[in-house]
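Re: the 279-residue chain
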Amino acid sequence: MRTAERTRQSATLRLLAAISVAVTLLPTMGTVSAETTTLCGGNGELFGENESLLLPLVQPSLGNVVTTLVTVDLTIEHDWVGDLWLLLNHADKNVELLQLPGNPASVYGCGGRGVSITLRDDALLPAEEACSLTPPAMAGVFGPHGALGDFEGDDPAGFWTLAVFDVGADDCGVLAVDGFCVHITYAPDCNQNGVPDGADVLSGDSDDDNGNLVPDECEVSGDCDVDGDVDLIDYACYLTCRTGPAGDVTPGCAVFDFDDDGDVDLYDWGRLQIAFAGQ
C-alpha cells in the first residue's frame, strides 16, 4: 500500500540532512551563453522505493550579477510518477518542483510512467495536473509546485541541487543522462543590491546621467565593460567610441568623455591612459 503522506515528513528530514553534505559531491560545471547559464546533470542514476537521490550542480561566479529567471528541464523514467517528490535547492532556499503528481485527485497519485517536462512559473497548467496513461505520463511545459521566482534576486553562483524522493513502494526510477537541467537568466547588478541595474535606473532608485542603464554609483570613467577597472578591453572599446573634437558621444560611450564636453577626443585618450590599471 502506498503511504505517501506518512513518509513525507521523514523525506523532509532526509533532504535537510542530505543538502548539508551535498557540497562534498563532485559537481558538474556550467557553460555560459549570452545572459543565460545552463547547468545539466544526470547519468542514469537509479533510485528505488523510499529512496532519495541528490544531484548537485555548481555555477562558478559570474561577477556582480543577479538571477532574473529560472526554468528547469526534467527527464525521468519511473513506473508510477505519482510517487515522485522533487525539490530544487540553492542559496539556502528549497523550491518544490513536483509533489506527488495526481494527488489528491487520487490518493495514489498519477499511475502513468515517465516524466519529460519543462517547468517555468509562467506556464498555464501545473505539472501535477498532467497524467497520461501513454508514456511519458507527464510531457510538455508546466508550472512547478512551488515558485522558481523565489530564486530571483539571488546570486546565481554556487550549488543548485536537485533532490528526488520516491515515497512509494514497489516501483523504481532512473534519472536520464542530462535528465536535470536548470537554466538561469541573469543581469548585471553592479551595486549588489539584488536588483538588476536596468531596473534600478528605470525605477529611479539609481541615477543614470549618461543614459547607459548603468547606475552612476557603479561607473568608473573609461570602464566600458563595467568590471571596476580600466584595462585592455576598455582600450579596444575606446577605439570604437572616439569621435574627435567635433563628434557627438553616444550614451554607451559616455564613459570615455572624461571632461564632459560631449565628445571622445585626444584629451579623453590621455585621461584613459592615466586611468589604465592593467590587464
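The longest helix spans residues 4-21.
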